[in-house]
Amino acid sequence: MGRYVLRRVLQMVPVFIGSTFLIFFMVYALGDPVAALFGDKAPDPATAARIREDLYLDEPLWSQYVHYMGQVFSGDFGTAFNGQPVTELMAGAFPVTLRLTVVAVVFEMALGVTLGVLSGLRRGRGLDTSVLLLTLVVVSIPTFVSGTVLQYLFGVEWGLARPSVSPEAPFAQLLLPGVVLGLVSLAYTTRLTRTSVVENARADYVRTAVAKGLPRHRIVTRHLLRNSLIPVVTFLGTDIGALMGGAIVTERIFNIHGVGYQLYQGILRQNSPTVVGFVTILVIVFLVANLLVDLLYAVLDPRIRYA
Amino acid sequence: MPEPFETQLDMTEALAPAAGGGGPMAASGTDALRGGGPPRTRRRMPWRREIRTGGLPGGRGLWSDAWHDLRRNPVFIVSALVILFLVTIAIWPQAIADGNPYQGNLAKAQEGPAPGHPFGYDLQGRDVYTRTVYGARASITVGICATAGAALLGSLLGGLAGFFGGWWDALLSRLADVFFGIPILLGGLVFLSVVTSGSVWPVVGFIVLLGWPQISRIARGSVVTVKQHDYVQAARALGAGSGRTLLRHIAPNAVAPVIVVATIALGTYIALEATLSFLGVGLKPPTVSWGIDISSASAQIRNAPHMLLWPAGALSVTVLAFIMLGDAVRDALDPRLR
Amino acid sequence: MRTASHRSPIRRTLSTGCAGALVGVVALSATACGGGDSGGSGSGIIRSSWGDPPNPLEPANTNEVQGGKVLDMIFRGLKTYDPETGEAKDALADRITTSDQRNYTVTIKRGHRFANGEKVTARSFVDAWNYGALLDNKQRNAYFFEYIEGYDKVHPLSGSPTAKTLSGLRVKDDRTFTVRLTQKFSTWPKTLGYNAYVPLPRAFFTHHAAWLKRPVGNGPYEVASYSKGAVMKLRTRDDYKGPDKPRNKGVDLRVYTDSNTAYTDLQAGNLDLVDDVPAQQLKFVRADLGNRYINQPAGIIQTLTFPMYDSAWRGPAKAKLRRGISMAINRKQITERIFRNTRTPASDWTSPVLRREGGYRPGLCGNACAYDPARARKLIEAAGGLPGGRMTITYNADTGSHKDWVDAVCNSVNATLHSDRACVGKPVGTFADYRNKMAGKQMTGPFRAGWQMDYPLIQNFLQPLYYTGASSNDGHWSDPAFDKLVNQANAASATGAAVTSFQDAEKILAEQMPAIPLWYQNGSAGYSERLSDVVLNQFSVPVYHQIEVG
């Protein structure tokens, strides 16, 4: 297993280089960002040329990339157009987004697995149908709507929560945004759990456990659930990165200056240091999450081993 | 700890004479947990069916067994009919809507239902009913094609990664990781803004491109699990080749999570199309789609909730039909349910 | 959403509305986020919404509303615009004199100091202007100094500057400096209320990085703390000598990512003032806020500009076509139904905030701006129909909710022409791409343009937009008669004569219709019960120093 982990960590190097170059190239392909800095006036060519020079935009793509990577390895991720260092933006955004993601993941995991197990065990009954309806609702109602409606109800109508999150963004204020963020994923975790439970409820080890006369809750938690978690855990592994980088709607509704928001701003302004910096960290998050998921497989199902 | 050795019991049971076909769909799943008597489930392991197929030239294969089951499943029939209906109006919206989905009367903007306009009007004063019917074409095309594309590509690459492991896994999984890293907005701006045609295919292609990694991870995880099962080991021990093992033994047992994720993703892809259109890089105006209408209704949720209700309802029905269909297919592929 | 900060960096794009809707993953636009709870009731502090400025907060580098809002509070220039009449009044200027409309002598008032105690002198202005103009400093608004002699030396079109300072600026003594312009410009003193012309303290040059972290100016407020992306706390200066001493103790500008969130926070009592009521809340804003809602004209006009470099649209022969399209647009209905009266149908190329004295003349456009589908169809047909039977309206999708009104305009044109698809919207993903397409002359049909004035003068609504080769003449229209009238207006010594010449120039626009005036945009704001005396100036920015708390 040690060797396996080492190998996976080494694999991160080409992925890191590949994705930074890909993202760098994509931002480059968007075109010249400088004109937009001047708003609706045509940029004065001399000033624009100076700004391009400062940003190394007058150099060929490969040399821009090499220069950028050189900076990155010395710890400098460049600056955004408002003059703020990207590292400062990241230091502000990632902790908040991480907390938000934790809330969302705990929510979708805890509630999703519970609802999934219950509806799997009571297939075709009222609860199962309600869970199906919930799934349909969260899939077809945009996050923008669920977010603003919940924000209004909790924040204004009932006064139970602040409509906007303060810059410090403590966990308590992130509960509502986290739930909103986790809603769509909740549909996935619930239905994945349900399906696995339905399948595994017929598995041999469950039947054996029943035959051995083990108590029901023990069968469910120790045998059934554990084996049903693999698809759910896999899904969460893919979801963590998406939640961190793609929470733009939720972040905007609740005024959270997180990763999704900064990334979004960076892309619209075509600021490659911001975009590449944030995406690089996100890719590392994906890689680590997927590695953890793979290691979890072996814990959840000991028959799975790694060479 | 799970008990890995139980399976011996199945081996003996599995070698017993075949017990015949499909039990009631929803019944057997949880019996084992109800306590009391012995499990009622009649079991047939896939590899055993193979023995039978091999032995009896006229016998049905796994997939035709599944089809046989499906045809008798009311859930399948209902969901198939709904989908058929949706596809019909996607092709021929004039059949049930004779209005004009493009032209509106701004004077009636956001007004509620009126005679001849049962769903009310949208922000531009266009008939919501007509828009909902006409929106099916783009949304159903994007939903079905993008889901099919992402599911096929994702299952294929994920399945291969999980089955072969090693370098295959490393290569395919890390490739997926790179694609995971592309922000939708950036990808959309780069890949779709160069497209000038008004067709849906670039959008479908783009969603497949960004959608496959997730399904591939799910498929890979599923294959990794199923690969360890006894019947797979047994089949390999009996000399089944890689392709045969993967297709006949692993795929049917590993497909459930993929179906679940794909059917829900169908709904999110339809919404994703709207996000892209909203960013100015999706379907070109004046294309009508549920996603675009849901997106513009969202901003007006406080002023005119009816604008959201109908296209979102249509999206729900579509997703529901596919979830039910997915469930039915999954059940049909699960031999333990027979 | 109003994108305030992202919004075209520049205070002239309009955008508004709420983009809203985002189904899947991404949403648009920006304005930014809540601060702590400092400034609760009784403290005399106004809690106001803000968007993080996209550029560093240097005066000559700030070209959009959000940064401008701060500069308005912490600086005072030579002139200031009366929030009600828009008249340019002396602020720090004691007097500005000229005998030839080209050489000006500026004398500043005594006794003004920066917040760090430094005296405001003639040098404070001259240094600041030289800094703003010098190419090496890469100031986005450097062109504001282009009328001053020597600009071509400090800011050459290419290559390095050959001088560090503007030869047209001379310090006479502590309170006096002279300015020599490159040409006659009678209304030049009235432009001096713009942010780029404020004085700067020595600390700006000697401790630049520290200054940017916490800007120091000479205005009624000083920056107490600034945490980027979150909140800027401004406090009233006790030692401020001007007549516009604040009636409150300070302002907390809180960054919001979305104007709708700010509005919700206002409803929940966590915020006192939003200066952008999101479009989706307008239907109920009276019910929510009663009389605490302001909706008044601002110096912003929106137009559909034609690409006059494209043979399909170019030339006087196509003027009929352009006028026909203008007449096919039902402005009144769109401003009512889509904008809920936060826009007013336009009938000239200026803005109501200029008032009639300043050159605003409703109806100047005549029939060409009145909705008349029958005549519109005839005109368009007489001109040979739309080029290829189709037209697109190009807009950028990332800021504001332009889609809604573009679709409505197209529907109006389509209804006129009895066609479903004669006119369709054509979104472009980012503002940068949109600007680049414009600069590259790649537009193939009319495109949206918004202009927010820099200063309330009719000159600012016409010359930068329609003069041959002007910096915002994005349609590349050119007409010698128009240029001549503008020159004549600039050289006129009496304001009345200048305005008349500008209006004569405007009549050429009505004939040629290089840009269709759509509507004048209003500024809107909502505030809490804690506040009173809230007004907006012509730039749709709240006049903070007049607001009373509690």
Q: Describe it for me?
A:
The complex is a heterotrimer of chains A (307), B (338) and C (550). Chain A is mainly α. Chain A has helices at 2-30, 45-54, 61-73, 86-121, 126-140, 143-157, 171-200, 204-211, 216-245, 248-253, 259-269, 272-300. In chain A, helix 4 (86-121) packs antiparallel against helix 9, helix 4 runs parallel beside helix 12 (272-300) and helix 5 (126-140) crosses helix 7. Chain A starts with a helix and ends in a 7-residue tail after the last helix. With 338 residues, chain B is an all-alpha fold. Chain B folds into 2 domains: 5-36, no CATH class; 61-337, MetI-like fold (Orthogonal Bundle). Helices cover 64% and strands 0% of the residues of chain B. Chain B contains 12 helices and no strands. Chain B has helices at 7-15, 46-55, 62-71, 74-91, 128-164, 166-180, 184-192, 201-227, 230-237, 242-278, 290-299, 306-333. In chain B, helix 3 (62-71) crosses helix 12 (306-333), helix 4 crosses helix 12 and helix 5 (128-164) packs parallel to helix 8 (201-227). Residues 1-59 of chain B have low confidence and may be disordered. In chain C, strands 11, 12, 13, 16 and 17 form a 5-stranded antiparallel beta sheet that branches. In chain C, 26% of the residues lie in helices and 19% in strands. Chain C is built from 16 helices and 19 strands. Classes of the chains: A mainly alpha (307), B mainly alpha (338), C alpha+beta (550). Chains in contact: A-B, A-C, B-C. Chains B and C meet through helix 7, helix 10 and helix 11 of B and helix 9, helix 12 and strand 15 of C.
CATH architecture of chain A: Orthogonal Bundle
Q: What is the terminal separation of chain C in angstroms?
A: 29 Å
- The rounded Rg of chain C comes to 23 Å
Q: How many strand elements of chain C?
A: 19
Question: Termini separation of chain A (Å)?
Answer: 7 Å
At the first level of CATH, the class of chain A is Mainly Alpha
User: How big is the Rg of chain A?
Assistant: 23 Å
Catalogue the unreliable spans of chain C. 1-41
Structural class of chain A: mainly alpha
The pLDDT mean of chain C sits at 88
Major sheet details of chain C: 5 strands, antiparallel
- Say which CATH homologous superfamily of chain A is assigned: MetI-like
Largest sheet of chain A: none
Which spans of chain A have pLDDT < 50 for at least 5 consecutive residues? Answer: none
**Secondary-structure-derived class of chain C:** alpha+beta
